[in-house]
Automatic annotation (TrEMBL):
Record keywords, A-Z: NADP
Name of the protein in its database record: NmrA-like family protein
Family to which the UniProt record says this protein belongs: Belongs to the NmrA-type oxidoreductase family.
NmrA-like domain segment(s): 6-302
Pfam families documented for this protein: NmrA
Organism annotation: Rhizobium phaseoli
Length: 317
């Protein structure tokens, strides 16, 4: 079969943790071609994706780009849409997501997969501040009203948050892990680098089956206490939990966060929401992604495959 006969999927944020998983899995399946959107064609990750066979397109994710986006989506059969991390009080996430979806539809894309989260504002009656959840839910509402087949994925907390944003520190012979959840609260977690691709491949392979569906992506449901115990067992490094769940705890370990009070409020609002209401709505089947892809990494497998030993890591996004 000529490669030109394969459906073309456009991937926004292609070098992100989610995006690179999607691009890699779609290309490795040999069932799809991929057009990867990035700001920098010459970044190491963009070059790696190009080597795998992706068509690389320079396309920043920012407002006022409707025409460029329509041109970039032209010829694509499907689009994987995501919004990059946007720190409050910036409020562009909802309009940015809507712009991406509108442009994909205008370009003639047949099926959209958008990476969304719950509407925290609605669920909590406005008592918890987590705009990076709620804004994604608003984008999803917008997509539901567009004349296009669509599906949503909802990723659990990323394991990588502990490597990238809440890095541990040594105290004598002990590694202290400041974690943003209460020690015994079991929450859903996932590895975005390996778990996003398989579910998106499944959806684009069966778009009619998943039209209108919202699918949670979960690798483990685990408490900080269990995470630290597992970390000790896997690495042999003495480790202890530290509370970064309360404002005092968070700012004691990450005083630099205090520079943006909105960001602090958002971090606290997000975890209070997760603890009091549950990260995912009760209607979701949290086993779906693990049934679909039994190789989905739990925390222990993530530690073993990533080789993480407490160092701060960046994923180049
Ligand atoms: N952390 C969690 O626990 C969690 C859980 C669920 C959902 N999420 C959501 O996941 C999203 C982030 O996904 P991710 O962690 O996979 O992304 P990421 O690794 O932080 O990468 C973001 C990517 O977006 C691209 N980008 C384009 N325009 C950008 C801009 N103006 N600013 C920053 N980046 C821009 C960058 O690629 P180029 O440089 O190549 O353009 C970058 O690779 C956020 O919306 C977050 O709310 C996070």
């Amino acid at each position: 079969m000529s490669t030109d006969n394969k459906p073309l999927i456009a991937v926004t944020g292609a070098t992100s943790k989610q995006g690179r998983s999607v691009v890699t899995t779609l290309l490795e399946s040999q069932r799809f071609r991929v057009r990867a959107f990035t700001r920098r064609k010459d970044s190491p990750e963009a070059l790696r994706l190009e080597k795998l066979g992706a068509e690389i397109v320079t396309m920043p994710l920012e407002l006022g780009r409707q025409n460029d986006l329509v041109a970039a989506f032209k010829g694509a059969d499907g689009a994987f849409l995501m919004t990059p991390p946007i720190a409050p009080p910036e409020t562009i996430e909802a309009p940015l997501g809507r712009q991406l979806a509108d442009a994909a539809v205008e370009a003639g894309v047949q099926h959209i997969v958008f990476s969304t989260l719950e509407n925290v504002h609605k669920i909590t009656g406005g008592t918890k501040y987590a705009p990076h959840f709620t804004d994604k839910a608003r984008v999803a509402d917008h997509i539901r009203g567009l004349p296009v087949s669509h599906s949503f994925i909802m990723l659990a907390f990323f394991y990588t948050n502990l490597l990238e944003y809440y890095a541990p520190r040594m105290d004598g012979d002990t590694l202290l892990l400041p974690i943003y959840l209460p020690e015994d609260f079991a929450a859903p977690f996932v590895d975005p680098l390996t778990a996003t691709g398989p579910v998106v491949l499944e959806i684009f392979s069966n778009p009619a089956r998943y039209n209108g569906k919202t699918l949670p992506v979960v690798g483990d449901i685990i408490s900080p206490r269990q995470m630290v115990e597992t970390f000790q067992r896997v690495t042999g490094i003495k480790a202890e939990y530290r509370n970064a769940f309360t404002r005092d705890g968070l700012l004691a370990y990450f005083p630099e966060f205090a520079a943006n009070e909105f960001f602090v409020r958002e971090l606290l609002g997000m975890v209070e929401y997760a603890v009091e209401y549950g990260y995912f709505g009760k209607e979701h089947d949290l086993e779906w992604s693990r049934r679909l892809a039994p190789e989905t990494l739990n925390w222990e497998q993530f530690l073993r495959t990533s080789g993480w030993r407490g160092d701060k890591r960046s994923f180049g996004g």
